[in-house]
Design brief:
The chain is an all-alpha fold. It has 69 helices and nine strands. Helix 6 packs parallel to helix 8 and helix 8 runs antiparallel to helix 9. The radius of gyration is 46 Å and the shape is globular. It has a seven-stranded parallel beta sheet with strand order 5-4-3-8-6-9-7. It has a two-stranded antiparallel sheet with strand order 1-2.
């Protein structure tokens, strides 16, 4: 609008005074000044030179514009409105002033105005004055004359730099420094020469000290003058070069790493990027040494390393931009880190060594947080934790993120909000079923809290709440290193925690941990008023757990304060804390009016104290606190036991909530019984005296009848409580192993119908009305009845075990029912089947125990009923497969029932339905274990233990059960699945956590479940090692197993002729031969006569290397122990060539260990002579691999001959020595010499000793590791020793290897057979059905052809060259350029234009181009040269076509290419720049149907090149026709 107004004024008059007078009169406004600026520029551009114009311009400048800039035009103080409006006026006035300075003639106006403005600037009056002076100097500065006004320019430059660098000092305007840097310094930079040198001198003068506080202003100045302070290619004037200034780089370095505000860091990145770009454009080396010439260079550039340096700095700057503002870490990075598959092991990394990403994440987070400013660190960590709670994380990412947080250096970063976020994260970790990973994550999160919490912002109450979010049974166990670390942290900081507002007036002493815990116990024991009442709900157990944990922490903290162990001090502290509790407990037995809620809370605390005090660490045996605590609590045992007896027997339990109290009472009673057993069971002890009265009272309650009346709620609750108490009494009696008068209990169970469901109380009953109103579905009557039936079966199981034990029947005896009750075993078993259908799945364990006792009595007489019991029990178990907490206990009960040794023996004798059903269930368990790891482990552990007990106690160590079910051992010996990737990841991470040992408290708190698949094999191997080969039954069992193993190996070989390494077939065969090697010492010659042919036959089969080593090893051991089998071994070399070519290497490997084989042979000469003949014969084979094995065997056998001085072989000395000398002196560096050296160094021939290395360690760990078997198959000796379910044996197998074999690393030689892929090392490789990449000079082209110019070469080869030019100067990636080069050459483009011809040397380019650059003309055109190049080609008749989506682009399907077409391709990210779009004749776009609206640039170019070629071919075809 202002420009239009200026034009209108010029149309009316060209008189400058009149025009200026019109605009300068009146109130100053932004529009008026803008119009004046446009008018001055129009007059300047028009070049008019009226005599009045210079004077008029001078008058406008001095009389209007300068006063306006100073804020008082015409003596008035105008109201210019808001700051943005004022700034607009100033900018317009400054631009107008610059035009006036150029239009003025005579005495230089610019110098006068600059002098006056400089005085105002130095005076530093007020903010508007400084701002106006800067605007005046910025306006007239470019008009100053470099020579005449040089000193003035220098003074202005120095003042501008001083103002810009001192913007944060008192006395300066708030925005003056920024204005000087943004407006004045760039204007002075245009002056060049003296001004620029003055600016640079003020910045980089050696005498000026470098201050880190001035980094922000200095970077602001440097970024404003970046284009002037860095050399430009082709510039005439050589100005300052900031790249060679150490101060410049120290400022940039500080801005990148230590600047607090994002703008300063952005300026530092900009300067670094511009310096790198300038260095690349200049193409010259540049070095900036550190101050004083010592230390590494601050900046270094080499033209030879240009590509590497450009890539490095590009990645560095991209990384710095990505990490800016922490948003990337909290956002996309953490989203990406939530993917579990990223945490897998790297190829070749050992199991248990940890995730590479997890370890790098830990290092990255530590470094990153350490570099963050303190005021940013807290917010970042809080957002990091909140991000961890914003989604459902898998166990593995949560674990490694928590571990990274636990490694962050100590800092005061988290307050109350941070603790709440940590609690939320802890709740997230509870979701996973991976217990060990869950526990480890909790440990690391607690460690993170100890490192990052600011204790002055949180109270002890906040810390206690965090501790309650942990599961003590998984992480925070007393006695662990984590517990010790927590105690140390509390001891160091207990006086500095924030005090709650209620106790803010108390001193530091009042805020100590001991005082807090003392008050905590007092408040806990004191029953709140709202809990008054007899029938209320049970208190929450979390408060009791909190109090117990804090008591024990406080005691341990006080113990650490003493220099030496002071038992009395610990006892005093415990008594101080527990006095309120002990005082309350002492009153329970005598005061019947203690409120029920108070008794509940006290008993809960007592129970939690006993559970928590047990030390899990290395000092568990010497823990004084546990002993003292138990002693103090036992002092109240008499009062507590009398209270429990009264509550359970005096009809005081009347409501549904009282059933929870009954459960609490029974748990407390059980714990007190355990303590009494630990101290020594005494009949007269107070806790022992309650057992008999408790039993009698419960029986009396259960025998009472309702006399035909409707049962009341109180009556039914008392029955349920009595049955639960009776069941617990039975368990307690089992613990003390004392006699109990079971007559009343048996008579009770005879009168009570089994599985009787209690009648629901009538709704009219006043007491039961509250039940119907308050009870929820999960706490309904069905759950109560299920508990009642469950307790019935607990009592019955006790009677069956304790009162009428079943002795193992001798062979031929008939098992008779021995229950003296009215019910027969058949009736009880039928009732058990009904119970399984009635009870919830988590309540069936006692029913399984009863069935275990009953089924052996009925297996002969009622087999179908027993089979039905197996089936029903299996269905119940499978329904629990997804319930972790109840599945494993019920699995153990089921296995103990069905696979009881008595049941197995009885079923095996009859060979009826039960026998086959047991085997069917056995295979179902094995099948289940493939998807639920650990199921087979439970079965194997139970069977092996029971069979070993039977073998030790039975007649002559009988193994009748094991012999009839040896399929179980066979499956165990070969068991192991090929895990999916996610399963393998979980196994790897669990192994990593276990490898941390005591450093991770979860390993100490949780006992290892030993559920990995390898423990199935460990159990089977340890069982076999314990068998006695002198025992006929044991020997027969092992021989039968060996035969079945050989048969299984043959079946696997026949099922698949060829199999891959580490496939399931490979693993099974590997396990088979490992077991056979383990069993070998138990084999005698007679048995080997039966199986030797199968063993030799296995040597003829195609096998993987590890299996070959085991077969060779066992053959060596057989021949060493029984040389009688040597003739059979020699016969193996006598088969036809076709059979031997796939296996002869196996037997030649055995032959290389002839020194071991002949140790037990008195006459060795014949054997050695035969071995030499065989080795020399096969040394002439046409197959290279066979020759290698024959030569290594010949060398080793000949060494034995020379050592033994065998004279019969002297005639062959010359021949053998010559042959060996020839192979040793093979010249050249070909594969033959390399392979000969490698096979000699191979462990099987250089280090392995068949006798000294015979041990479990070599069989199951060392040999699989050295032969390339996957790590999942490696079983260390520690795994054998840590598996304690089956005892370890003794003998050679349990020793360690006596050779350095264990220390070797896998080599690069893999034993291969001639028929399975091995070939002559120097021969060509012929493969069928493989795409053949044609390399022109690989097919006998003449050298003269290669020297032809491109066009002549194309003509000579008959190539058709089109008139298509493809311009790819905007493309950066070598892969895209290489693909385009190949496409252009294939379709005959005339030329390919690239930005740099050096791209053809890139390996990625060459990989994609496959030599196309040798056959296609390439032209170099830089991106900035493209406009002139396109104009040149357009003048030559080419149509310039762009591949771009624009508003007027043409569809490729309808576009007709001219013959002379130039195809311009855009950049991968930015496409075709806007300045080049204007030079295109037309744009073509590719029609697309998908969601993603872009194609790779190489693909797009290829589509257009092909469409051009297709149209040209159609035109030629039409023209020829």
């Amino acid at each position: 609008m202002e420009g239009v107004l200026a034009e209108v004024l010029l149309e009316q008059s060209w008189d400058p005074r009149a025009l200026f007078g019109t605009l300068c009169r009146g109130e100053a406004s932004a529009e008026r000044v803008e119009t004046l600026r446009f008018l001055l520029q129009r007059l300047e551009d028009a070049g008019t030179d009226p005599s009045a114009l210079p004077e008029a311009a001078r008058e406008v400048a001095t009389g209007y514009l300068v006063p306006l800039l100073r804020g008082c035009p015409g003596g008035a103080d105008p109201d210019l409105g808001p700051p943005s409006q004022r700034r607009r006026v100033l900018r317009a006035a400054g631009a107008a002033l610059r035009s006036c300075a150029r239009l003025a003639r005579g005495p230089p106006l610019a110098a006068a105005l600059a002098e006056e403005a400089l005085r105002d600037l130095r005076a530093g009056r007020c903010a508007p004055g400084v701002e106006a002076a800067v605007e005046v100097l910025a306006a007239v500065g470019p008009c100053l004359r470099p020579r005449e006004d040089g000193p003035l320019l220098e003074r202005v430059a120095q003042a501008a730099v001083a103002l810009a660098l001192g913007a944060d000092r008192p006395g300066n305007a708030e925005d003056a420094g920024a204005l000087a840097a943004a407006r004045l310094l760039p204007a002075l930079g245009q002056c060049g020469g003296a001004a620029l040198r003055a600016v640079w001198g003020a910045l980089a003068e050696p005498g000026v000290p470098w201050e880190p506080d001035r980094v922000g202003p200095e970077l602001q100045v440097l970024s404003a003058l970046a284009e002037k302070l860095l050399p430009q290619p082709g510039a005439r004037d050589v100005g300052p070069d900031a790249r060679r200034c150490g101060r410049f780089w120290r400022t940039v370095q500080t801005g990148l790493g230590r600047a607090e505000d994002a703008l300063t860091r952005k300026r530092a990145r900009y300067l670094l990027q511009r310096a790198v770009e300038v260095s690349a454009e200049l193409g010259a080396d540049c070095t900036c040494d550190a101050h004083g010439g010592t230390g590494p260079s601050l900046f270094w550039w080499s033209e030879k390393k240009k590509d590497e340096l450009l890539k490095f700095w590009e990645n560095y700057i991209l990384l710095m931009e990505t990490l800016e503002g922490n948003q990337f870490i909290i956002g996309p990075l953490m989203d990406a880190l939530s993917e579990s598959s990223l945490y897998g092991r790297s190829p070749g990394q050992l199991v248990g060594s940890g995730s590479p990403l997890g370890l790098k994440l830990q290092k990255f987070l530590v470094t990153y947080v350490s570099l963050l400013p303190e005021e940013i660190k807290s917010g970042f960590l809080l957002r990091f934790l909140q991000k961890m709670t914003s989604r459902h994380w898998c166990a593995v990412p949560v674990l490694f993120l928590s571990r990274a947080l636990a490694s962050v250096p100590r800092c005061k970063a988290l307050g109350v909000e941070g603790l709440l976020a940590l609690r939320d994260v802890l709740r997230c970790t509870m979701v996973t079923h991976q217990v060990l990973l869950r526990g480890a994550a909790q440990c690391y999160l607690l460690q993170a809290a100890l490192r990052l919490v600011d204790v002055e912002q949180v109270s002890l109450c906040d810390v206690s709440a965090l501790l309650m979010s942990l599961r003590q049974e998984e992480s925070l166990g007393r006695g662990t290193l984590l517990w010790t670390e927590l105690c140390d942290w509390l001891r160091e900081n207990e006086l500095y925690f924030r005090q709650p507002s209620a106790s803010g007036s108390q001193g530091l002493q009042e805020a100590s941990l001991a005082t807090y815990v003392k008050n905590l116990v007092q408040e806990y024991v004191r029953s709140p008023a709202w809990e008054a009442g007899e029938g209320g709900l049970m208190p929450d157990g979390l408060e009791a757990r909190l109090t117990a944990t804090m008591v024990l922490l406080a005691v341990d903290v006080e113990g650490k304060k003493a220099q030496y162990s002071e038992k009395q001090r610990t006892q005093n502290m415990l008594r101080l804390f527990l006095d309120p509790l002990l005082g309350a407990l002492m009153k329970f037995g005598t005061n019947a009016y203690v409120p029920v809620p108070k008794t509940d809370r006290c008993l809960q605390l007592l129970l939690m104290l006993l559970h928590t005090c047990t030390s899990r660490g290395s000092s568990a045996q010497e823990d004084e606190v546990s002993v003292l605590l138990q002693s103090l609590l036992m002092s109240a045992s008499e009062s507590v036991s009398e209270f429990i007896l009264r509550r359970l027997t005096m009809d005081e339990l009347r409501t549904v909530s009282d059933l929870d109290r009954c459960h609490l009472y029974l748990m407390v009673l059980t714990e007190l019984i355990h303590l009494q057993l630990k101290l020594g069971w005494k009949v007269g002890a107070s806790i022992c005296r309650v057992i008999s009265p408790l039993k009698n009272a419960c029986i009396r309650h259960l025998q009472e009848t309702d006399s035909g009346q409707e049962p009341t709620l109180a009556r039914q609750i008392q029955r349920v409580a009595s049955m639960a108490t009776l069941a617990r009494v039975c368990e307690i009696v089992d613990l003390q192993q004392e006699s109990l008068d079971t007559g009343p209990l048996e008579r009770l169970l005879c009168t009570l119908p089994l599985n009787q469901t209690l009648q629901k109380p009538c709704a009219e009953d006043p007491e039961s009305s509250s039940f119907f109103e308050e009870s929820s579905p999960c706490q309904g009557w069905g759950k109560i009845v299920a508990q009642y039936v469950h307790d019935q079966w607990v009592c019955l199981s006790f009677l069956l075990r304790r009162c009428h034990p079943l002795e193992p029947a001798a062979e031929g005896d008939k098992l008779e029912p021995s229950l003296p009750s009215v019910r027969t075993p058949t009736q009880i078993l039928c009732a058990a089947l009904d119970a399984l259908s009635l009870l919830p799945s988590d309540r069936v364990s006692p029913v399984f125990c009863c069935m275990k006792t009953l089924v052996p009595q009925l297996l002969t007489s009622s087999e179908s009923l027993c089979v039905e019991s197996f089936d029903v029990a299996w269905r119940v178990l499978t329904s629990l497969s997804n319930t972790q907490l109840t599945f494993w206990p019920n699995l153990r009960a089921f296995v103990q029932f069905v696979f009881d040794n008595t049941i197995l023996s009885t079923a095996a004798k009859t060979k009826g339905q039960a026998y086959f059903r047991i085997k069917e269930i056995m295979y179902k368990i094995i099948e289940m274990s493939t998807v639920k790891t650990g199921v087979f482990n439970t079965l194997m552990s139970h069977c092996c233990q029971s069979w070993l007990v039977s073998a030790a106690s039975g007649p002559q160590g009988s193994l009748s059960s094991a012999r009839h079910y040896n399929e179980l051992i066979l499956e165990a010996c070969t068991f192991g699945t090929v895990f999916r990737r996610d399963q393998r990841l979980i196994q790897d991470v669990q192994t990593f956590i276990e490898s941390l040992g005591h450093d991770c408290a979860a390993n100490v708190v949780m006992e290892s479940t030993k559920r990995e698949d390898c423990y199935v094999r460990v159990c089977a191997i340890k069982f076999l090692c314990l068998l006695d080969c002198s025992n006929t039954a044991h020997k027969s069992f092992m021989e039968d197993l060996a035969i079945k193993l050989l048969d299984k190996d043959e079946q696997v070989s026949q099922s698949r002729a060829r199999y891959y390494q580490n496939s399931l077939q490979h693993r099974v065969k590997n396990r088979i031969w490992q077991v056979l090697l383990t069993l070998f010492p138990r084999f005698d010659q007679n048995f080997l006569n039966e199986i030797i042919d199968k063993i030799f036959q296995a040597g003829f089969i195609n096998n993987q290397a590890s299996i070959k080593y085991f077969i060779e090893w066992i053959i060596i051991l057989i021949l060493h122990k029984f040389p009688q089998f040597l003739p059979k071994f020699w016969d193996c070399f006598s088969y036809g060539e076709e059979k031997l070519k796939t296996s002869i290497c196996t037997f030649l490997s055995v032959l290389s260990h002839l020194d071991i084989i002949i140790q037990n042979i008195p006459e060795k000469r014949r054997v050695l002579k035969q071995a030499l003949l065989i080795a020399m014969k096969w040394g002439l084979s046409h197959n290279f691999s066979i020759r290698l094995y024959a030569l290594i065997a010949l060398k080793k056998v000949w060494a034995v001959c020379k050592a033994l001085c065998v004279e019969e072989c002297d005639a062959w000395t010359a021949l053998i020595e010559c042959s060996l000398s020839q192979v040793e002196s093979m010249h050249g560096a070909g594969n033959a010499k390399k392979n000969w050296q490698r096979i000699q160094d191979h462990f099987f021939f250089a280090t392995f000793h068949p006798l000294e290395d015979y041990c479990l360690e070599t069989i199951f760990y060392t040999l699989p590791r050295l032969s390339g078997v996957i790590e999942e198959e490696w079983i260390t000796l520690d795994r054998f020793s840590s598996f304690t379910d089956v005892p370890s044996g003794s003998g050679p197998l349990w020793r360690l290897s006596r050779t350095p074999l264990y220390e070797l690393n896998p080599g690069d030689w893999s034993q291969q057979d001639a028929g399975t892929g091995s070939r002559e090392a120097d021969g060509p490789s012929e493969q069928a059905d493989v795409q053949k990449k044609i390399i022109p000079w690989g097919h006998d082209l003449l050298d003269t052809d290669l020297e032809l110019v491109l066009q002549d070469r194309a003509a000579k080869l008959g190539k058709s060259i089109s008139r298509l030019i493809v311009v790819a100067s905007l493309i950066d990636k070598p892969t895209n350029l290489g693909g385009l080069c190949r496409t252009c050459e294939v379709f005959g483009a005339s030329v390919l234009v690239v930005s740099n011809l050096h791209c053809v040397r890139d390996k990625q380019f060459q990989h994609l181009s496959v030599s196309a650059e040798q056959w296609l003309p390439l032209v170099e055109v830089k991106p900035h040269q493209l406009p002139s190049y396109l104009q040149q080609k357009r003048a030559a008749g080419y149509t310039v076509i762009g591949v771009e989506q624009t508003a007027h682009s043409s569809d490729l399907a309808q576009f007709c290419f001219p013959e002379k077409s130039l195809l311009l391709l855009g950049n991968e990210r930015e496409g075709i720049p806007a300045n080049l779009l204007q030079q295109l004749d037309m744009c073509v776009e590719i029609p697309q149907q998908g969601v993603i609206r872009s194609l790779n640039v190489h693909v797009s170019g290829a589509l257009l090149i092909w469409e051009y070629t297709r149209q040209q071919l159609l035109r030629r075809t039409g023209a020829s026709s």
